[in-house]
Design goal:
It comes from Haloplanus litoreus. The chain is mostly beta strands. The chain is elongated, with a radius of gyration of 17 Å.
Amino acid sequence: MSLYRRKALQLSGLGIATLGGCTFGFGGTSNEVDVTMTNNDETTHRLSVTISFENRVLVDKTVTLSADESSSTTFENPRSAGSAVLEAELDTADRTRTEIRVGPGTGIRDVFVEVSADGELTAFAGRT
């Protein structure tokens, strides 16, 4: 591949990332992170989600979700990179705790907390 073609592809990718809501200075990481809580079970559930970073609470939300219902919130991505702690608890006493990378250069755009069709709780971060 020619040097000119490579450069054109790099620049077009940068344009697409910028148009997609990513901030170049953040290494493709969004300033705001969407948190989506989804209940794929047939039963209504109460779900609590907390995300903490450097002794700050970024998200503290409790929702009641009917079958196949979702709820969303956002948090401002921290100005420094590091590991945040995501804790989720379901009304059935099922809990999950995981670390997610937040801040500049991490590529984080979304966090998902889901109740599966068989009532199990999972949580993970989506990246660009």
